[in-house]
Amino acid sequence: MRKKFLEELNALNIELISMGSMCGEAIAITIKETLQNDYDGALYEKVSKLEDDIDRKEKYIEALCMKMIYSWQPVAKDLRFINAILRMIADLERIGDQALDIANLLKEFKYTTLIKDTDLPKMFNTVLMMVNESVRAFVKRDINLAKEVIAKDNEVDEIFLNIKNQVIILIEKEDNSRDIVDILMIAKYLERIGDHSVNIAEWVVYTVKGDNYDIHTGR
After folding, report:
1. What share of the chain in percent tops pLDDT 90?
2. CA separation for the pair 125, 86 (Å, rounded)
3. Which residues, 6+ apart, have CB-to-CB distance to 198 below 8 Å?
4. Which of 57, 74, 59 is nearest to 9 (CA)?
5. For residue 75, how many other CB atoms are within 10 A of its CB?
6. CA-to-CA distance for 44 and 103, rounded, in angstroms?
7. pLDDT score at 116
8. pLDDT, tens digit, for every residue of 83-132?
């Protein structure tokens, strides 16, 4: 009986990895297409398909979790693991939504060269790392890696403030103020993706250490 339960837990693990990979791919595609000067407008369709896949994966994992809770009535660490997965897939689904929000903004975006005058490429790469590393921390049950992701939140906030200042300078220099403001909106969506990655990392800590563990003091 226990062996069967552990097999189902492992299957959950694999599905979560798959969902996290989809989210990382959506962001990676967005980075590539945003930074190329010959942006062809196909980004939205690509990310939209991935976002649909992410939504379906969330529903599938949620059904697996509820089936396991009903069938096995897990307690203690096992229940904590399943509960953490339910919370994490909600954050991953929101990451997919926000990647699509960015792609939607870029459908009419004509000034990709302006992005390179800001810290947006750095923010893209930092947030992508946070998404990938938060999922990897869960797979490895690595609290130190999870705490590294959590610590990156301050860096993302600092980059966001830099971009706000850079956008102000660009508005003063350029005529296309609408697209420049869209750069700030993209940064805001990336900040939210970073926040969801932090949530996932905190659920990693919860899974390993339980309710009473303080991620800030390490006790």
Report:
1. 61
2. 26
3. 130, 134, 149, 150, 152, 153
4. 74
5. 8
6. 5
7. 80
8. 999 999 999 999 999 999 998 888 777 666 778 889 999 999 999 999 99
Give the integer Cα–Cα distance in Å for 181 and 179.
5
CA distance linking residue 78 with residue 81, whole number of Å: 5
Tokens standing for residue 58? 């969330």
Tokens 């706000």 belong to 164
Please state the pTM of the whole predicted model. 0.91
- Cβ contacts of residue 21 below 8 Å, gap of 6+? 135
User: Are 10 and 82 in contact, with CB atoms under 8 Å apart?
Assistant: no
Hunting for tokens 């997919």 — which residue is that? 96
How far apart, in whole angstroms, are the C-alpha atoms of residue 75 and residue 77? Answer: 6
The structure tokens listed for 203 are 């659920």
Q: Which residues contact 49 (CB under 8 A, 6 or more apart)?
A: none
Displacement of CA 40 from its chain's centroid (Å): 25
Q: How far is CA 2 from the centre of its chain?
A: 33
